[in-house]
Amino acid sequence: xxxxxxxxxxxxxxxPLTGLGTLVNNLRWAWHPETQDVFEAVDPQLWRSxxxxxxxxxxxxxxARLDELANDNAFLRRxxxxxxxxxxxxxxxxxxxxxxxxxxxxxxxxxxxxGITHVLPQYxxxxxxxxxxxxxxxxxxxxxxxxxxxxxxxxxxxxSLNAEGWQQERYPLxxxxxxxxSLLRDGDAPATVTLNLPGNxxxxxxxxxxxxxxxxxxxxxxxxxxNEPSEREVTDRLYGGSTEHxxxxxxxxxxxxxxxxxxxxxITGHAAPEVFHTNEGHAGFLGIERIRELAAxxxxxxxxxxxxxxxxxxxxxxxPVPAGIxxxxxxxxxxxFSPDVFGPEVPVDRILELGAEDFEGGDPALFNMAIMGxxxxxxxxxxxxxxxxxxxGMFAGLWPSFDSIDVPITSITNGVHAPTWVAREVHxxxxxxxxxxxxxxxxxxxxxxxxxxxxxxxxxxQRFIDDTRARxxxxxxxxxxxxxxxxxxxxxxxxxxxxxxxxxxxxxxxRLTLMLRDPERLKALLLHPExxxxxxxxxxxxxxxxxxxxxxxxxxxxxxxxxxxxxxVFVPDYDIALAQPMYxxxxxxxxxxxxPYEACGTSGxxxxxxxxxxxxxxxxxxxxxxxxxxxxxxxxxEGIEDTDRRDDLEAHALYDLIEKQxxxxxxxGDVPTRWIEMLRHTIKELGPxxxxxxxxxxxxxxxxxxxxxxxxxxxxxxxxxxELAAWKHKVRAAWPQIRVDHVELQGLGDVPxxxxxxxxxxxxxxxxxxxxxxxVEVLHGRVDANDEITDPVRATLSQAETYEGNRHRYEGELKxxxxxxxxxxxxxxxxxxxxxxxxxxxxxxxxxxxxDPSTPDLPAGSEF
Length: 864
Description:
Elements: H1 18-24, H2 33-42, H3 44-49, H4 54-60, H5 63-70, H6 73-91, H7 95-100, E1 107-110, H8 126-141, E2 145-150, E3 158-161, E4 167-170, E5 182-183, E6 185-186, E7 189-190, E8 192-197, E9 201-212, E10 215-221, H9 229-232, H10 243-268, E11 275-279, H11 286-297, H12 302-311, E12 313-316, E13 327-329, H13 330-336, H14 348-354, E14 366-368, H15 369-376, E15 379-382, H16 385-394, E16 410-411, H17 418-421, H18 424-430, E17 432-434, E18 440-442, H19 450-478, E19 498-503, H20 519-526, E20 533-538, H21 546-559, E21 568-570, H22 576-585, E22 588-591, H23 603-609, E23 613-617, H24 620-625, E24 631-634, H25 643-666, H26 673-686, H27 692-715, H28 719-734, E25 739-746, E26 757-765, E27 774-782, E28 793-796, E29 798-803, E30 807-815, E31 822-830, E32 862-863
Parallel strand pairs: 1-2, 1-11, 2-10, 11-12, 12-15, 15-16, 19-20, 19-22, 20-21, 22-23, 23-24
Antiparallel strand pairs: 3-4, 5-9, 6-7, 8-9, 9-10, 13-14, 17-18, 25-26, 26-30, 27-28, 27-31, 29-30, 31-32
């Protein structure tokens, strides 16, 4: 008989063991080996069989064993020390209190997924793992962060293969009572938030709290009795369902998330956040809710409330292609934000303006979540330097008066949380010290011999191979094989063979099957008699991505070949539990995306911290920090439009690198000195750069603190926000009158020479604006064949004289600091102390067209 409801019953711990409950309920155990040791000591065999899940462990350990531990003085002392260490971790001053803190009371960090531990399956891939590492690093630094997400009752999906190698999806039920989380209570009742929906419906959600070290993670759950069946299913699974289902999830995350934060702060006394950070556009509706709050509670008009919201909002885009952005039919947005549903405080037409694709090539019938995110945030960033460039180009249509270089999207390169991803053996070998300042000091690496390093890597290879063999055996059983025909699995892979890893999501641009372009050449590399290579591959395709599933099937069919199946394997169900032994157990991490479509790609960072070398297309973070001592760069054929030819060229470059450089260096002697030199250099020089603590420090210093300052100045009395909104309205209305009439150089000479300083004068008409409302800039630098200024240098010209008709002369100096083709131009841009960028309004007035007969005697810009 099928149960109508299920729940987990937790044990009552003997009083001396209550500290175990304290340790379980703080997810710091997920990255703290010493706490894991305490759980393992409870019952080593049960700890392994539960997959390192402390909730399951305590739920299954026999009562007699608990009674035994309650009288074990050695264990109780160990438990006491672990609890005291956790208490010190969550209360002591760390980097934020000593270096990074003021002014910043709290940050609310919204993401649709969080990858904290495999025990809490609320993630699908890199976005969620990055969000989890962000929370962990913020905790390590004591940055006052509140995470906000959803609790999906079926998570993402568990992946398996059928007999033909086709991906199968299964959605196991996630029981909150069996997770290391707790229900937020308001008095005796669960705390809830409520959203109105069309058709007089309501969406209710309760709030679960996962304590991630010092950081609370709030997760909204709609599977409660107050909801009708359709509303209970809103948080059923990650990235699933119809278009309206996805919209409801994003409404709950954004609108409901803000309400959950308010509820949590009221109940617990946590400082109210003054900065709201949306990790991708899925949570963008949080800005609409904050505007509604200000309109309803502070009686602010829409424009003033918009400025208050923008000042304290940070938006991070992870998307390198427009197809990766959520877009909803305008009619659907109108229904859910109509006055009788969302409330009368926020006009629905103003909401539609925020997400409108009102630029060249945009679709007026669609509402774009990333566009709304950019318009609701004063500060935005990509996740690597190259991705910043890509994002500025992709969203340049929002700032049509500016070149893409001026688009106000900066970049902060992602990082990874070393205590989560670095194997304990590597930590011990390198004497890595994760300090209270968030730094990793690999102080012992130079004291470690090459032989010790090599033996440690072999040990980690063997452990990974053992784990892989168990997974491959289970995969074949799931595909219909019998135990009797799987003897060969015991001999797949070899701990003395060069081991490469490739694991990631499987969209087409990541090119899972690039290595299969020439199957015979790949086989030759795998089966080389003296320098063989073995490859372990993992990755999930989105359930609706038939193309991605075909790529997986192609790879699986190649790996099924008895000739090579001991050298190449596909391991299903890539998750944190698989990744943690994989990164330390591989020697080379392979990544071959279509450049420049990899936003960052942090898997190679995790491998590097474990002494793995990277073999990658120069995309994402690898483009930024590539060094030939960290690995190898696969030459990119970017620019070749024939995709088949491009794939062939890059695949053969990959084969050549493996055959002629990577494998010979790995097999150069019993202890390959040159290889180990690269490994040492990678850990010491690249390691500190790729840390999530470095990333979070960058967010605090470059985005959070400036946003907090803006938020405070605009929130104090709201007069600043009112003035800023009125000023923007005035500037937009007056801008058509702004023009640069005339530009001239003085002292140029007949032959411009390097080092010469020349005077520049510009005459500008300001219409109805005052000189304080604008700034006149000169941009200069080397020019290309199309007279475009590359990498321009900016300088501000000073007001020198005023004429009738609100015309003004501006002056400055221009230093000829480079040889070759040199060009300059002048522009007028809005100027206000509350602007984060000169491009914020998207307005700029430059020189007139030199070919226009109405242009003054001299052209406004020149090239020489």
